[in-house]
Amino acid sequence: MIIQAEKLTKKFGGLTAVNQVDFSLAAGEFKSIIGPNGAGKTTLFNLIAGAESPDGGRILFQGEEITSLPQERIVRKGIVKTYQTSQFFPSLSVLQNLSIAAQPPGSWRLLWTGKGFAQKTLTQANTVLKQVGLENAADSPAEALSHGERRYLDLGLALATQPKVLLLDEPTAGMSPAETRQAARLIKHLAQEFSLSVILVEHDMDVVMEVSDRVLVMNEGRIFAEGSQQEIRRNSDVQRIYLGKGRAAC
């Protein structure tokens, strides 16, 4: 397993958002986490990304414990997260944003010394630019992009770091149905092309079922069910939760 979490627990005051959760992700696997609002899926996602620290349990990456590492060190190891809201430098061009993401750790100072980007960095940024379909917007300021294009830039920024594990937090949020279908196909294609391990948190069930190898369902801070797309579709208890009869406590 490339990622393995054991007995993860996270509390916010008297509320247990994640309760003794065991989680694993195989190399090259695409796994989605779903559940009703407040089920604990985003908290679990953030624990794996290093954005939150657990109150109990541990997380292993390629057999090495990373539970207490700061998020920037987790990113350097190859676990990279996208966000629900776009994160970029709005006044810089799309290519400049990707070039910053593609730089090795610590080399960002080149920007401010006037030396510019190394050729290897620019080559990598241009490659990602084409992979996410933004080559025609390379010189445009990021703030001029449409909403859908901004979501592609978010994906490109993550890919530019050459991750081993990609954590996607609602990457199609705010997209039209047509944009959503296109984005889902692109995400699946890139995951397969680069043999990425992917964890997806997504409310759009059509997206989840199109891209996932396995689906994990959370409710009340615990894993409620896990299985293939077909197994989750047929699970009557999962259907009951999504019809509102299951009570989410966090």
Automatic annotation (TrEMBL):
UniProt entry tagged with the keyword DNA-binding: no
Keywords associated with the record: ATP-binding, Nucleotide-binding, Transport
The UniProt record lists the keyword Kinase: no
A GO molecular-function descriptor: ATP binding
SMART domains, per the entry: AAA
Source taxon at top rank: Bacteria
GO cellular component: plasma membrane
ABC transporter domain segment(s): 3-245
Protein name in UniProt: ABC transporter related
Source organism of the structure: Desulfatibacillum aliphaticivorans
